[in-house]
Amino acid sequence: MSDKSEIKRVAKADRPPFYPDEPAAEKILAMVTALASEVAVLRERQDTFERLAEEKGYVLASEIENFEASADVAAQRRQWRDAYLDRVFHVLLDDVDALMDTGAST
């Protein structure tokens, strides 16, 4: 079985800073982004487990690894993920909206 959980930890390009004068904020942002990604993956795995358990009464690890979501399930997951990311990043989105409003009025 291949190890799909191995994630490359090196970015291919430098990410432009969101808060260039606040290195601590940049680090926290990077940490929160990584955490948000991990939670999203865990949520999808949990969803898979629950769906298989409901259908069959038991779950095998290989079934979880090979589960292919239907279009309906994928849409439900996208909807949950979008709402989740909106909750996690709402403060940043508010900052972006404020910047956009400032830029539009000048």
Description of the structure:
- The chain is mostly helical and 106 residues long.
- The protein has one domain.
- It is built from 4 helices and no strands.
- The protein has helices spanning 23-56, 61-66, 71-88, 90-105.
- Helix 1 (23-56) packs antiparallel against helix 3 (71-88).
- The protein is elongated, with a radius of gyration of 19 Å.
- The N and C termini lie far apart (57 Å).
- The mean pLDDT is 82.
Helix-strand string? HHHH
Inertia-based shape: elongated
Question: How many structural domains does the protein architecture include?
Answer: 1
The total of helices stands at 4
C-alpha end-to-end distance: 57 Å
Radius of gyration based on Cα positions: 19 Å
The oligomeric state of the chains shown is single chain
Number of DSSP strand runs: 0
Strand content: under 5%
Largest pleated sheet: none
pLDDT < 50 stretches:
none
Name the structural class.
mainly alpha
Whole-number mean pLDDT: 82
| Helix percent band | 55-70%
Please render the helix and strand layout as text.
Elements: H1 23-56, H2 61-66, H3 71-88, H4 90-105
Helix pairs in contact: 1-3
Give the key terms.
106 residues, 4 helices, mainly alpha
Compact summary:
The protein has helices at residues 23-56, 61-66, 71-88, 90-105. It is mainly α. The chain has one domain.
